[in-house]
Design brief:
53% helix; 211 residues; mainly alpha; 3-stranded antiparallel β-sheet
């Protein structure tokens, strides 16, 4: 990804198409001459507009997807290990940690994807977040098992996905917090439409009226 091109810098969350109020490019700062482009409200010169188009056209390529999974998996392992250790060694469930795990994983996936976002990355972040939380519950269960056999461990691994729900209505608040943590990771990887328009004619600024 172009180091000068950051999604947040382009204000992708809003789209405004008005005549420019500045005579310089909103990315590189060079003076606009003759015409200008717009990318979701940001005034650009021709060169920067081309870089934005290339960025948008790159799409969800395989390299970005692999990085998103790798970064997200690393964050999920770290977050799940911390959460599991807290539950196992303190005997206390601190549900709000689920939100922290969701933030960690969501941020990692976002960084790995190059800040692109979109439904594919949302699913990656959400699944990895829940896997981290379920893994934490599995570690807690394992901690309290007496002389577990390999079959016990295998069964625990394959049943981990349902462990957060095994405490039933007594854990309804915990389940709600887990859902919020997953949603947090999902939301952090939402995509935003990027639209580049132009070239538009640049109206020269009028000087002060002569006396």
């Amino acid at each position: 990804m172009d180091p000068q091109l950051k999604k947040d810098d382009l204000q992708f969350e809003r789209a405004e198409f008005n005549a420019p109020t500045a005579s310089v490019c909103g990315m590189c700062g060079q003076t606009l001459r003759g015409s200008y482009y717009q990318a979701n409200g940001r005034v650009l010169c021709g060169a920067c507009a081309e870089r934005v188009k290339q960025y948008a056209g790159a799409g969800d390529d395989t390299a970005n997807a692999f990085r998103a999974v790798a970064f997200g998996l690393g964050a999920a392992i770290a977050g799940g290990a911390i959460y599991g250790a807290i539950m196992a060694y303190s005997g206390i469930q601190i549900g709000i940690i689920s939100i922290a795990v969701g933030f960690m994983v969501g941020k990692a996936v976002r960084v790995g994807s190059g800040g692109r976002g979109g439904s594919a990355y949302q699913w990656i972040a959400a699944v990895l977040t829940y896997a981290a939380i379920a893994g934490a519950y599995a570690f807690e269960r394992y901690h309290y098992m007496s002389a577990p056999t390999p079959d016990d461990v295998t069964q625990l691994i394959f049943s981990a996905y349902r462990l957060p729900f095994e405490r039933g209505a007594g854990n309804i608040i915990g389940i709600a917090i887990i859902a919020f943590g997953v949603w947090q990771a999902w939301k952090m990887n939402s995509g935003a439409k990027l639209e580049v328009t132009g070239p538009h004619p640049l109206t020269p600024r009028r000087g002060p009226a002569g006396g």
